[in-house]
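Here is one chain, start to finish.
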Amino acid sequence: MHVFFRSVIIFLIISLSGSSSFAQILDDTTHMEYGAHTTMYLKEYDLRFDFPVYRHIDTTIFDSYKISKVEQSNYRLQNLGLEGTTLRNIFYSVPRQIGVSPGFNGFSSFFKRPEDFRYYITRSPYSRMSLFLGGSNRSITDVEFSRNDSVMFNIGFGFKKMAINKQIQSLGRGDRRVENTQYDIYTQIRSKNLKYQLLANFSRTRHIYKESGGVDTTEVGDFFDEDVNVLLQNARSEELRTNLHLYHQYAIKDYLEFYNSADLYRQRNEYISDPIGDDRNYYDSLLISQTSTTDSTDYRYFQYEFGLKGRINRIYYNGYIKTKTYDFLYKYAVDSMAFGKHVKNPSGKEKYLGFHAGYIFNNYHLTGGMEFLDAESSNTYLSLIGKDINLKLNHISYKPSFLQQAYMGNHSFWINHFQSISADNVRVKYMFAVGPVMIAPTLAYDKVKDYVYFDENKLPAQALGQAKILSPGLDFKLEFLKHFMFEAEAIYTTVDGEASFAFQIPELFINSRLFYTNIFYKGNLEITTGVDVNYKSAYYGYAYDPVVQQFYLQNDTLVEGSPVATYFIDFKINKVSLYLKMNNLRAFASQKGYMVAPLYPGVLPNVDFGLTWWFFD
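Its structure:
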């Protein structure tokens, strides 16, 4: 409650301090020389595929209350109840890499990848400050700054700090469940004739998650109580990721350009339980030490890509070769069990060949391409995007991760020789209007062969055969009484085939939102307020193993279907947007929470406050 009152006080101070000059703010807005209209950006994708169109930054308040990665994914991601905890996809999704990968993906969404960077052109220094203050001592600070010394050179940096307190067994302020610190720096250089352009960035993220193991259900007490016991007291997962990225290109003609890119990447994952002490009963085995655990893996690679690209009228193309030199270092690669001798290819080199092309016609964008590594690893794709249709087809074969193939730590040991996984994917969405109603039928279909998963024993296994996942759905939007909007999407999923047991997906998935939105004072005050609801039908959701940061199959605990509702109100006054929201509305009234995964309760009822402030001078 302390954070709630502090949030309200900050909100009132900002509002009241502006009241005396509010009219002046509104009057001056139309006379501002610099603002969102003078600040633009592009991403590397735009430059690489010959769409160097700069976009204006988005300062609208729509969806600004969605702070967590789960909310931002429209609830297609699942965590362990708190922002910053390990994430997994509710629905099946293919990996980003067809080649080698470490297999530790639970914290991937908290790392800023090269393709996420924005490169700005600003007529004045541009900065943005976002602050989130949540109940139960949760906070996120996000700062970005960028400036140009001319239209030919831009430099910027970002900093983000996440501090999330425990919501169970908390000792008060500073008793963190999650700590995340990330920073980045980036630059763009362009020649005057734009024949040569360079993009470069560096990002670093340190993520610490103090594992709880979930609620101890053998103890007497309410599963959703703040003082209920948890299974782990001295364990934590840590991840460090860094990436240095360079991209540059030179144009001879519009139809012939050369480019290359390079990445130097590192990802270190650790699981630490020191001392083991009272946590001893949680672990299935103690293989190396009886008193403490310090397991770790270290994945590094250098990747270089060289390509040709260009544009001929409405057709563009991109062909490339790519090499990747990698090392995956196991802490216990040398041991009495000869673990290191049986691990397959922890170091090596991959060579890729790829091609991408596109065609633009009558407001439709047709793209397709392929990437080839070897006979067991390739990706072929085709997409058509237009004003009324979105179609994507994909066939992919990819390698199991290093973690799935082999691992040794204080509590786990395995060596496997799995074959590659393959999948055929179809995504279709068709949009049309019936009066004031916008309707969009959707269809997702996945045929997955030889899927690798973690079984009921927390061990990786391969489900030989096929699984067919069919997910038809419907999106619906209705605007009424001028300022009211109702949005909804519903997805129904069935899984068939001999490998269907490896996929646990809720049969029914629904998102809905009812809200009011309006603009006052000649466009200078915006307000949006409403209720956001997500529902998943009951299913046997995956359990979580903190030792290797993986979700695994279980058929004992039913994750009950429960609507999760959030009330939100967003304001924007001149250069400042503010929001106030109440999480888990049902718990405010009934004091009953909900489960996100076996042994893990969802977020407790809290009131959150946040603001974003843009500066253009």
